[in-house]
Design goal:
The protein has about 260 residues and is of the alpha+beta class. It contains 9 helices and 9 strands.
């Protein structure tokens, strides 16, 4: 009896570990590396080749991966199907996409939708600006909350518990000379954002990039996301920021209204 009880936790742990290893393979693929060889997957995951082959074979058999004729792998159609289901059932993303496209067209800069995910911000949707020179991130990418306009706008309206968690971090990474890593200065910055209703950053994550962000409110008048516009820092002069802010805040009001917020601007 005791032996049987002892085996169950270990069996459960083995199944969970197998799922984690399988998912780690899928997470290796990125926009810059859409196709990976067996050797690359082995290096990225730390798994041995025989295990990679077994797991990739299972994923390919279920449509989550495609094995190319030259033995490398690409993401499969099943992931696209699941992604489409997710998008159709996620009202925030579905409603935000046309607004993002309009915002990118009006400002000429790339527009993004961010939400809080854990202690970071997650890019849920994005529309690229028309300029060939632009600041680019990918949907699904996670970034810090304390650096960049989008992160600071989310952090400014986040719960006190989350703000404390981020601000009390032992070491805040300094990405550039403009990254604010001193707690008192960050708290002052967040207070300014709450007071004025938007955030601006110039060179905080990447020296050449600038951004603006404003909050989106849900039907309970709580901030559920932020919209951002981002591009080369030279295109974010004080005068142009004022012009783009009008379009940005009009877009956040429109999205908030569609999400059921009836608060007057």
């Amino acid at each position: 009896m005791n032996k049987k009880n002892e085996k169950r936790p270990r069996e459960s742990e083995r199944h969970v570990e197998a799922v984690e290893k399988t998912l780690s393979i899928l997470e290796c693929f990125t926009d810059s590396e859409p196709e990976l060889s067996l050797k690359q997957l082995t290096e990225k995951t730390g798994l041995n080749k025989s295990r990679i082959l077994r797991l990739c074979g299972t994923l390919a058999g279920q449509g989550f991966l495609i094995r190319m004729p030259w033995s490398s792998y690409r993401l499969g159609p099943k992931l696209m199907m699941l992604g489409k289901i997710y998008e159709r059932t996620n009202a925030l993303v579905s409603v935000a996409r046309p607004i993002l496209r309009e915002l990118a067209s009006l400002t000429g800069e790339s527009a993004s939708l961010f939400i809080i995910e854990g202690a970071k911000r997650l890019c849920m949707a994005r529309a690229e600006g028309p300029s060939p020179i632009r600041y680019t991130i990918t949907e699904g990418e996670s970034l810090e909350l304390y650096a960049g306009a989008g992160g600071k706008a989310l952090l400014a309206y986040a719960s006190e518990e989350l703000r404390r968690q981020v601000l009390n971090s032992r070491v805040l990474e300094r990405f550039t000379s403009s990254t604010i890593v001193v707690r008192d200065r960050l708290e002052e910055e967040l207070e300014v954002i709450r007071r004025q209703g938007f955030a601006v950053s110039k060179g905080e994550r990447t020296p050449e990039a600038a951004a603006m962000a404003a909050p989106v409110f849900d039907n309970e008048s709580k901030v559920c996301a932020v919209l951002t516009i981002a591009g080369p820092v030279q295109r974010f002069s004080a005068e142009r920021c004022q012009e783009m802010l009008i379009s940005l805040q009009a877009s956040t009001r429109k999205l908030s209204l569609l999400l059921g917020n009836r608060q007057k601007a």
